[in-house]
Design a protein that fits this description.
It is built from 16 helices and two strands. With 356 residues, it is mainly alpha-helical. It has a two-stranded antiparallel sheet with strand order 1-2. The chain is globular and about 65 Å long. The chain starts with a helix and ends with a helix. The relative contact order is 0.16.
Length: 356
Protein backbone atom coordinates (compact mmCIF):
# COMPACT_ATOMS: atom_id res chain seq x y z
CA UNK A 1 0.00 0.00 0.00
CA UNK A 2 1.33 3.45 -0.91
CA UNK A 3 2.05 6.18 1.65
CA UNK A 4 -0.90 8.21 0.33
CA UNK A 5 -3.23 5.25 0.65
CA UNK A 6 -2.12 4.56 4.23
CA UNK A 7 -2.62 8.26 5.09
CA UNK A 8 -6.18 8.22 3.71
CA UNK A 9 -6.87 5.02 5.64
CA UNK A 10 -5.56 6.58 8.87
CA UNK A 11 -7.72 9.70 8.36
CA UNK A 12 -10.81 7.57 7.71
CA UNK A 13 -10.16 5.53 10.85
CA UNK A 14 -9.71 8.74 12.86
CA UNK A 15 -12.90 10.16 11.36
CA UNK A 16 -14.96 7.12 12.35
CA UNK A 17 -13.45 7.16 15.86
CA UNK A 18 -14.33 10.85 16.33
CA UNK A 19 -17.88 10.25 15.05
CA UNK A 20 -18.30 7.39 17.53
CA UNK A 21 -16.99 9.53 20.41
CA UNK A 22 -19.31 12.40 19.45
CA UNK A 23 -22.27 10.01 19.33
CA UNK A 24 -21.46 8.90 22.89
CA UNK A 25 -21.06 12.55 23.99
CA UNK A 26 -24.43 13.42 22.44
CA UNK A 27 -26.13 10.50 24.22
CA UNK A 28 -24.69 11.77 27.52
CA UNK A 29 -25.82 15.33 26.73
CA UNK A 30 -29.36 14.12 25.97
CA UNK A 31 -29.49 12.20 29.26
CA UNK A 32 -28.16 15.18 31.25
CA UNK A 33 -30.59 17.55 29.55
CA UNK A 34 -33.56 15.36 30.48
CA UNK A 35 -32.74 14.51 34.10
CA UNK A 36 -31.01 17.70 35.36
CA UNK A 37 -32.88 20.92 36.06
CA UNK A 38 -34.33 23.07 38.84
CA UNK A 39 -36.47 20.01 39.64
CA UNK A 40 -34.52 16.80 39.12
CA UNK A 41 -36.02 13.79 37.32
CA UNK A 42 -34.41 10.60 38.60
CA UNK A 43 -33.18 7.76 36.39
CA UNK A 44 -35.91 5.35 37.68
CA UNK A 45 -38.60 7.81 36.57
CA UNK A 46 -36.99 8.20 33.15
CA UNK A 47 -36.73 4.43 32.69
CA UNK A 48 -40.36 4.01 33.79
CA UNK A 49 -41.46 6.65 31.28
CA UNK A 50 -39.50 5.15 28.39
CA UNK A 51 -40.84 1.66 29.14
CA UNK A 52 -44.43 2.95 29.29
CA UNK A 53 -44.82 2.29 33.01
CA UNK A 54 -46.43 5.67 33.69
CA UNK A 55 -48.48 4.31 36.59
CA UNK A 56 -45.36 4.04 38.79
CA UNK A 57 -44.49 7.73 38.27
CA UNK A 58 -45.79 10.60 40.33
CA UNK A 59 -47.79 13.20 38.43
CA UNK A 60 -45.22 15.98 38.85
CA UNK A 61 -42.39 14.04 37.20
CA UNK A 62 -44.69 12.92 34.39
CA UNK A 63 -45.71 16.53 33.64
CA UNK A 64 -42.11 17.76 33.79
CA UNK A 65 -40.95 15.09 31.35
CA UNK A 66 -43.78 15.41 28.84
CA UNK A 67 -44.36 19.17 28.89
CA UNK A 68 -40.88 20.54 29.58
CA UNK A 69 -37.81 18.31 29.38
CA UNK A 70 -38.52 16.15 26.33
CA UNK A 71 -39.69 19.05 24.07
CA UNK A 72 -36.77 21.18 25.24
CA UNK A 73 -34.23 18.41 24.64
CA UNK A 74 -35.74 17.59 21.25
CA UNK A 75 -35.64 21.20 20.10
CA UNK A 76 -32.08 21.67 21.38
CA UNK A 77 -31.04 18.53 19.52
CA UNK A 78 -32.44 19.81 16.21
CA UNK A 79 -31.26 23.41 16.56
CA UNK A 80 -27.74 22.44 17.66
CA UNK A 81 -27.37 19.99 14.77
CA UNK A 82 -28.66 22.55 12.27
CA UNK A 83 -26.34 25.31 13.50
CA UNK A 84 -23.30 23.00 13.58
CA UNK A 85 -23.71 21.52 10.11
CA UNK A 86 -24.77 24.85 8.60
CA UNK A 87 -21.62 26.51 9.90
CA UNK A 88 -19.45 23.75 8.42
CA UNK A 89 -21.23 24.05 5.06
CA UNK A 90 -20.84 27.83 4.93
CA UNK A 91 -17.15 27.60 5.81
CA UNK A 92 -16.62 25.03 3.07
CA UNK A 93 -18.65 26.99 0.51
CA UNK A 94 -16.88 30.30 1.17
CA UNK A 95 -13.50 28.63 1.81
CA UNK A 96 -13.41 30.71 4.97
CA UNK A 97 -13.13 29.09 8.43
CA UNK A 98 -14.73 32.18 10.01
CA UNK A 99 -17.94 32.07 7.93
CA UNK A 100 -21.23 31.16 9.54
CA UNK A 101 -24.92 31.20 8.47
CA UNK A 102 -25.12 34.89 9.35
CA UNK A 103 -22.96 35.72 6.35
CA UNK A 104 -25.81 34.88 3.96
CA UNK A 105 -28.17 37.23 5.76
CA UNK A 106 -30.21 34.71 7.75
CA UNK A 107 -29.51 36.18 11.18
CA UNK A 108 -29.88 39.86 10.29
CA UNK A 109 -33.06 39.27 8.25
CA UNK A 110 -34.62 37.12 10.95
CA UNK A 111 -33.69 39.67 13.62
CA UNK A 112 -35.26 42.56 11.69
CA UNK A 113 -38.48 40.65 11.04
CA UNK A 114 -38.68 39.54 14.69
CA UNK A 115 -38.22 43.11 15.93
CA UNK A 116 -40.92 44.29 13.51
CA UNK A 117 -43.25 41.65 14.96
CA UNK A 118 -42.46 42.65 18.55
CA UNK A 119 -42.65 46.43 18.08
CA UNK A 120 -45.46 46.73 15.51
CA UNK A 121 -47.37 43.53 16.33
CA UNK A 122 -49.71 45.11 18.93
CA UNK A 123 -50.56 48.05 16.61
CA UNK A 124 -50.06 48.03 12.83
CA UNK A 125 -49.78 44.24 12.49
CA UNK A 126 -52.41 43.36 15.09
CA UNK A 127 -54.75 41.54 12.62
CA UNK A 128 -51.89 39.24 11.56
CA UNK A 129 -50.93 38.69 15.19
CA UNK A 130 -54.48 37.60 15.95
CA UNK A 131 -54.57 35.20 12.99
CA UNK A 132 -51.25 33.44 13.70
CA UNK A 133 -51.24 33.73 17.50
CA UNK A 134 -48.06 32.39 19.14
CA UNK A 135 -46.65 31.41 15.75
CA UNK A 136 -46.60 35.06 14.59
CA UNK A 137 -43.06 35.88 15.82
CA UNK A 138 -41.41 32.60 14.62
CA UNK A 139 -43.15 32.92 11.25
CA UNK A 140 -42.02 36.52 10.78
CA UNK A 141 -38.42 35.65 11.73
CA UNK A 142 -38.34 32.71 9.34
CA UNK A 143 -39.70 34.79 6.46
CA UNK A 144 -37.25 37.57 7.25
CA UNK A 145 -34.24 35.25 7.13
CA UNK A 146 -35.40 33.53 3.96
CA UNK A 147 -36.30 36.82 2.26
CA UNK A 148 -32.93 38.36 3.08
CA UNK A 149 -31.13 35.33 1.70
CA UNK A 150 -33.18 35.38 -1.51
CA UNK A 151 -32.38 39.09 -2.01
CA UNK A 152 -28.69 38.41 -1.44
CA UNK A 153 -28.69 35.55 -3.92
CA UNK A 154 -30.42 37.65 -6.62
CA UNK A 155 -27.91 40.50 -6.17
CA UNK A 156 -24.88 38.18 -6.31
CA UNK A 157 -26.04 36.16 -9.35
CA UNK A 158 -25.29 37.29 -12.92
CA UNK A 159 -26.02 35.19 -16.02
CA UNK A 160 -26.66 32.15 -13.86
CA UNK A 161 -23.28 32.44 -12.11
CA UNK A 162 -23.11 33.15 -8.37
CA UNK A 163 -19.94 34.88 -7.22
CA UNK A 164 -18.72 33.95 -3.74
CA UNK A 165 -17.01 37.33 -3.32
CA UNK A 166 -20.20 39.16 -4.37
CA UNK A 167 -22.17 37.06 -1.87
CA UNK A 168 -19.89 38.05 1.00
CA UNK A 169 -19.80 41.76 0.10
CA UNK A 170 -23.56 41.88 -0.52
CA UNK A 171 -24.14 40.08 2.78
CA UNK A 172 -22.14 42.74 4.63
CA UNK A 173 -24.11 45.57 2.95
CA UNK A 174 -27.50 43.96 3.56
CA UNK A 175 -26.60 43.17 7.18
CA UNK A 176 -25.69 46.85 7.68
CA UNK A 177 -29.02 48.02 6.23
CA UNK A 178 -31.13 45.55 8.21
CA UNK A 179 -29.10 46.40 11.31
CA UNK A 180 -29.88 50.10 10.87
CA UNK A 181 -33.59 49.35 10.42
CA UNK A 182 -33.53 47.14 13.52
CA UNK A 183 -31.84 49.93 15.48
CA UNK A 184 -34.49 52.43 14.41
CA UNK A 185 -37.28 50.12 15.57
CA UNK A 186 -35.52 49.55 18.91
CA UNK A 187 -35.27 53.36 19.29
CA UNK A 188 -39.06 53.77 19.08
CA UNK A 189 -39.88 50.62 21.10
CA UNK A 190 -41.50 50.85 24.55
CA UNK A 191 -40.17 49.14 27.70
CA UNK A 192 -42.15 45.92 27.13
CA UNK A 193 -40.94 45.58 23.57
CA UNK A 194 -37.34 46.32 24.59
CA UNK A 195 -37.45 43.51 27.17
CA UNK A 196 -38.85 41.05 24.60
CA UNK A 197 -36.27 42.09 21.99
CA UNK A 198 -33.38 41.64 24.44
CA UNK A 199 -34.50 38.16 25.53
CA UNK A 200 -35.14 37.00 21.95
CA UNK A 201 -31.81 38.33 20.67
CA UNK A 202 -29.89 36.34 23.31
CA UNK A 203 -31.64 33.06 22.46
CA UNK A 204 -33.49 30.52 24.64
CA UNK A 205 -35.03 27.05 24.46
CA UNK A 206 -37.57 27.88 27.17
CA UNK A 207 -40.41 28.14 24.66
CA UNK A 208 -39.91 24.61 23.32
CA UNK A 209 -43.10 22.79 22.42
CA UNK A 210 -43.97 19.76 20.34
CA UNK A 211 -45.60 22.04 17.76
CA UNK A 212 -42.36 24.02 17.33
CA UNK A 213 -40.37 20.79 16.95
CA UNK A 214 -42.73 19.60 14.24
CA UNK A 215 -42.48 23.01 12.53
CA UNK A 216 -38.66 23.07 12.30
CA UNK A 217 -38.15 19.32 11.75
CA UNK A 218 -38.50 19.34 7.91
CA UNK A 219 -35.96 22.16 7.53
CA UNK A 220 -33.39 20.50 9.80
CA UNK A 221 -33.86 17.12 8.10
CA UNK A 222 -33.38 18.82 4.73
CA UNK A 223 -29.98 20.27 5.65
CA UNK A 224 -28.90 16.93 7.18
CA UNK A 225 -30.17 14.92 4.20
CA UNK A 226 -28.03 16.81 1.66
CA UNK A 227 -24.76 16.00 3.50
CA UNK A 228 -23.92 13.00 1.25
CA UNK A 229 -24.65 15.06 -1.88
CA UNK A 230 -22.57 18.15 -1.04
CA UNK A 231 -19.62 16.67 0.88
CA UNK A 232 -17.53 15.75 -2.19
CA UNK A 233 -18.32 19.06 -3.92
CA UNK A 234 -17.30 21.11 -0.88
CA UNK A 235 -14.02 19.17 -0.74
CA UNK A 236 -13.39 20.03 -4.40
CA UNK A 237 -14.21 23.72 -3.83
CA UNK A 238 -11.15 23.97 -1.59
CA UNK A 239 -9.16 24.01 -4.86
CA UNK A 240 -11.34 26.80 -6.36
CA UNK A 241 -14.47 27.01 -8.53
CA UNK A 242 -12.66 26.28 -11.82
CA UNK A 243 -10.83 23.23 -10.46
CA UNK A 244 -14.02 21.88 -8.92
CA UNK A 245 -15.87 22.33 -12.24
CA UNK A 246 -13.18 20.39 -14.12
CA UNK A 247 -13.45 17.62 -11.50
CA UNK A 248 -17.09 17.20 -12.53
CA UNK A 249 -18.71 19.15 -9.69
CA UNK A 250 -21.82 21.19 -10.71
CA UNK A 251 -20.54 24.25 -8.87
CA UNK A 252 -23.53 26.57 -9.31
CA UNK A 253 -26.05 23.88 -8.38
CA UNK A 254 -23.95 23.01 -5.34
CA UNK A 255 -23.94 26.66 -4.21
CA UNK A 256 -27.69 27.07 -4.70
CA UNK A 257 -28.51 23.84 -2.86
CA UNK A 258 -26.20 24.62 0.05
CA UNK A 259 -27.33 28.23 0.51
CA UNK A 260 -31.02 27.28 0.29
CA UNK A 261 -30.66 24.45 2.81
CA UNK A 262 -28.68 26.58 5.27
CA UNK A 263 -31.07 29.53 4.95
CA UNK A 264 -34.14 27.36 5.49
CA UNK A 265 -32.69 25.44 8.45
CA UNK A 266 -31.18 28.44 10.24
CA UNK A 267 -34.16 30.71 9.51
CA UNK A 268 -36.46 28.13 11.10
CA UNK A 269 -34.22 27.49 14.11
CA UNK A 270 -33.54 31.20 14.76
CA UNK A 271 -37.28 31.81 14.54
CA UNK A 272 -37.95 29.08 17.12
CA UNK A 273 -35.26 29.91 19.68
CA UNK A 274 -33.81 33.32 18.85
CA UNK A 275 -30.24 34.15 17.90
CA UNK A 276 -27.74 31.62 19.32
CA UNK A 277 -24.16 32.43 18.39
CA UNK A 278 -20.80 30.61 18.21
CA UNK A 279 -22.17 27.07 17.67
CA UNK A 280 -21.79 27.41 13.88
CA UNK A 281 -18.24 28.75 14.11
CA UNK A 282 -16.60 27.02 17.06
CA UNK A 283 -17.83 23.44 16.58
CA UNK A 284 -16.72 22.97 12.93
CA UNK A 285 -13.44 24.77 13.65
CA UNK A 286 -12.58 22.50 16.59
CA UNK A 287 -13.50 19.39 14.64
CA UNK A 288 -11.55 20.50 11.57
CA UNK A 289 -8.42 20.71 13.70
CA UNK A 290 -9.10 17.19 15.02
CA UNK A 291 -10.13 15.27 11.88
CA UNK A 292 -9.02 17.48 9.00
CA UNK A 293 -10.97 19.35 6.29
CA UNK A 294 -12.73 16.40 4.61
CA UNK A 295 -16.46 17.18 4.63
CA UNK A 296 -17.27 13.48 4.50
CA UNK A 297 -16.58 13.40 8.25
CA UNK A 298 -16.68 17.11 9.13
CA UNK A 299 -20.36 17.65 8.27
CA UNK A 300 -21.87 14.77 10.31
CA UNK A 301 -19.38 15.42 13.12
CA UNK A 302 -20.46 19.09 13.24
CA UNK A 303 -24.10 18.03 13.48
CA UNK A 304 -23.36 15.71 16.42
CA UNK A 305 -21.02 18.19 18.12
CA UNK A 306 -23.37 21.16 17.65
CA UNK A 307 -26.29 19.25 19.17
CA UNK A 308 -24.22 18.06 22.15
CA UNK A 309 -22.77 21.52 22.85
CA UNK A 310 -26.15 23.27 22.69
CA UNK A 311 -27.80 20.72 25.01
CA UNK A 312 -25.00 21.04 27.58
CA UNK A 313 -25.05 24.85 27.34
CA UNK A 314 -28.83 24.86 27.83
CA UNK A 315 -28.51 22.64 30.90
CA UNK A 316 -26.03 25.11 32.40
CA UNK A 317 -28.23 28.09 31.44
CA UNK A 318 -31.27 26.80 33.34
CA UNK A 319 -29.47 25.43 36.41
CA UNK A 320 -26.59 27.79 37.24
CA UNK A 321 -28.91 30.55 38.56
CA UNK A 322 -32.05 28.47 39.28
CA UNK A 323 -34.92 29.20 39.59
CA UNK A 324 -33.96 32.05 37.21
CA UNK A 325 -32.78 31.11 33.70
CA UNK A 326 -29.97 32.74 31.78
CA UNK A 327 -30.33 33.32 28.02
CA UNK A 328 -28.47 30.50 26.31
CA UNK A 329 -26.65 32.95 24.02
CA UNK A 330 -24.70 34.19 27.04
CA UNK A 331 -23.51 30.65 27.85
CA UNK A 332 -22.49 29.83 24.26
CA UNK A 333 -20.60 33.13 24.05
CA UNK A 334 -18.79 32.49 27.35
CA UNK A 335 -17.86 28.96 26.24
CA UNK A 336 -17.20 29.74 22.59
CA UNK A 337 -15.38 33.05 22.53
CA UNK A 338 -12.28 32.04 24.57
CA UNK A 339 -11.96 28.75 22.67
CA UNK A 340 -12.24 30.59 19.37
CA UNK A 341 -9.58 33.13 20.38
CA UNK A 342 -7.23 30.34 21.47
CA UNK A 343 -7.74 28.65 18.12
CA UNK A 344 -6.95 31.86 16.25
CA UNK A 345 -3.80 32.46 18.29
CA UNK A 346 -2.60 28.87 17.85
CA UNK A 347 -0.36 27.65 15.03
CA UNK A 348 -3.12 25.92 13.11
CA UNK A 349 -5.43 28.88 13.59
CA UNK A 350 -2.88 31.27 12.09
CA UNK A 351 -2.39 28.88 9.18
CA UNK A 352 -6.16 28.86 8.61
CA UNK A 353 -6.30 32.67 8.66
CA UNK A 354 -3.42 32.89 6.20
CA UNK A 355 -5.43 30.71 3.85
CA UNK A 356 -8.37 33.15 3.68
Amino acid sequence: MSTLGRRDGDRSALGFIVLALLAVLLAIAVFVSIVIGPTGVGLPHLVAYLTGDHASMDQQNLIILEAVRLPRTGMGLLIGAALGVSGAMMQGLFRNPLADPGIVGVTSGAALAAVIAIVLGPTLLFPLQVVFGEQFLPLMAFLGGLGNTFLLYVIATRNGQTSTTALILSGIAIAAMTGAATGLLIFIADDRALRDITFWSLGSLSGATTDKIIAILPFVLFVLAIIPFVARGLDALILGDAAAFHMGVPVQRLKRMTILAVAAACGATVAAAGSIGFIGIVVPHLLRLAIGPSHRFLLPASALGGAALLLLADTVARTIAAPAELPIGIITAILGAPVFLMLLLGKQGRQAMEGL
